[in-house]
Design brief:
Elements lengths: L2 E2 L2 H17 L6 E7 L3 H17 L2 E7 L5 H12 L6 E4 L9 H7 L11 H8 L8 H12 L8 E5 L6 H10 L3 E5 L6 H6 L3 E4 L17 E4 L3 E2 L5 E2 L4 H5 L4 E2 L6 H19 L4
Parallel strand pairs: 1-11, 2-3, 2-4, 5-6, 5-7, 7-8, 8-11
Antiparallel strand pairs: 9-10
Helix pairs in contact: 1-10, 2-10, 6-7, 6-10
C-alpha cells in the first residue's frame, strides 16, 4: 500500500517557515489579489489566499471588481499596483469574464511581481534555467518530492496534461532535475502504455478516473494534481485512488495533496519577491 504524501501537513510546515522569515523582516511583504466577478470557486480560492497571508504575516489587499469591469479599468489597476513599493506580488484570479483578454492582463503584471509565474518573462526564465518565479502548482509538486526524498534524477517521469499552468512547467522542472520526461495529452496514442513506463506519474488533466491501476507500474510515485467532482459531487482527482494506492509506492490524495501546496508556494514566491525588492 502506497505511502500517502500529505500536502496539508507539508503546506503548514512551509507556511510556518515563511512566517518565521517574515517575522524577522523590518518591511513586510505585500500581496495584491484581484478578483473580477462572482465566480464561487474563485471566491473560495481568494479567501484561502487571504487566510494564508494572515498566517504568514504577509500584508494583503483584495480588489473585488464587478463582472462588467473593462479591460482598460483592470489594466489601469494593475499599472497602479506595479508602481507601489509596498506591494511585492500581484495575482489576478482566473478565469476572467469573457470580455477581458486574459493574455494581455497577465502580460501587464510586472515580471518582478508575477508571483504566479505566468508572465512570458518568467516562463522564459524557467525554460532557460534562469532564476525566476515558478508556477505555484508544479513548484509545490517538486517541494513534495524533495520532502519525501523522491529524487527525479535518472527516473522516467510521465506528465499527463500540457497546460501552461501545470503540464508544461512541470515537465520543465522535472527536466531541470535530470529526469527523462514524457508529456502526454489528448492525442497521445496508447496512453496506458506510456503511463506504465513512469517511475513518477503526474496527472493534471481534470478527468475523473482517468488513471486506472492497470496504467500504473508497481512501486511508482503517483502525483494527482487535478481537482474534479465525481457524480456524487465529491472532490476527487484524475486517479482511481484505492486501486492505484495498492500498487504505488507513494500517492497524493485529493483533497489534501497538491492543492494546499499550491497556496503555500504562493507565499514562498511573495516572500522571494519582497527580498528581490530589497525588503529585509
Amino acid at each position: 500500500m502506497a505511502l500517502l504524501i500529505d500536502g496539508k501537513e507539508l503546506a503548514a510546515k512551509v507556511k510556518a517557515q515563511v512566517a518565521r522569515q517574515v517575522e524577522e523582516m523590518t518591511d513586510r511583504p505585500g500581496l495584491a489579489v484581484i478578483i473580477v466577478g462572482d465566480n464561487p470557486a474563485s471566491r473560495v480560492y481568494v479567501n484561502g489566499k487571504k487566510r494564508d497571508c494572515g498566517e504568514c504575516g504577509i500584508y494583503s489587499e483584495e480588489y473585488a471588481l464587478p463582472e462588467q469591469t473593462t479591460q482598460h479599468e483592470l489594466l489601469e489597476l494593475i499599472g497602479e499596483l506595479n508602481g507601489r513599493p509596498d506591494i511585492d506580488g500581484i495575482l489576478v484570479q482566473l478565469p476572467l469574464p469573457a470580455q477581458l483578454d486574459e493574455k494581455q492582463v497577465l502580460l501587464a503584471i510586472s515580471p518582478e511581481k508575477d508571483v504566479d509565474g505566468f508572465h512570458p518573462m518568467n516562463v522564459g526564465r524557467l525554460m532557460t534555467g534562469e532564476p525566476g518565479f515558478r508556477p505555484c502548482t508544479p513548484a509545490g509538486v517538486m517541494r513534495m518530492l524533495d520532502e519525501y526524498g523522491i529524487e527525479p534524477e535518472g527516473r522516467h517521469c510521465v506528465v499527463l496534461g500540457r497546460s501552461n499552468i501545470v503540464g508544461k512547467p512541470q515537465a520543465l522542472m522535472l527536466l531541470e532535475r535530470n529526469a527523462t520526461v514524457t508529456v502526454c495529452h489528448s492525442r497521445t496514442p496508447d496512453l496506458a502504455a506510456q503511463c506504465r513506463r513512469a517511475d513518477i506519474l503526474v496527472s493534471a488533466v481534470g478527468k475523473v478516473g482517468l488513471v486506472k491501476a492497470d496504467m500504473v507500474k508497481e512501486g511508482a510515485v503517483v502525483i494527482d494534481v487535478a481537482m474534479n467532482r465525481n457524480e456524487a459531487g465529491k472532490l476527487c482527482g484524475d486517479v482511481d485512488f484505492e486501486p492505484v494506492a495498492a500498487k504505488a509506492a507513494y500517492i497524493t490524495p485529493v483533497p489534501g495533496g497538491v492543492g494546499p501546496m499550491t497556496r503555500a508556494m504562493l507565499m514562498v514566491n511573495t516572500l522571494q519577491a519582497a527580498r528581490q525588492h530589497g525588503k529585509s
